[in-house]
Amino acid sequence: MIESIPLVLTGIGIIVSILYYTRVLRNQNKTSKNAILYQRFNTSLEYQQSLQEVLWKQDWKNLEDVNKMDMKSQAKFQHILNQYNALGMLLKKKVTDPDLLMSLYTPSAILTVCKKYEPVVNQMREGTNNSRHFEGIDFLREETRAMYPEAKIIESALL
Question: I want to staple 107 with a disulfide (CB 3.0 to 4.6 A). Which of 18, 38, 78, 151 is the partner?
């Protein structure tokens, strides 16, 4: 009987170690998921200027208008499109927490960007014959609508 005590204590020690390391790994995974979103969240002046120019200063309604932009403006346009598409893919693949994303990017801003880009994205899909081209932006829009049905599009950005 006394001889089995060290074996039982060793077994308990192993189980406690497994539980501890499992918890540590879960926390690291959660931290990594949040870090990916924070890396995408760009509050730099350059990003904000790109967003302002693309949404409010540039007068575009379709892909033809975008193609008439100078190269710098086209790069900004593509940067914003890629940013929001990537956010949607992070949500779709469950790499990030939807509540965290919505607290960093306001639902109204998300819906506005998605609406503004919708005609161009549709034209790109037709041009490439790929209905899944930029599918992340669609997923982002639908998730935002589902989570925040009261969110409104900023109409002045669409004029």
Answer: 151
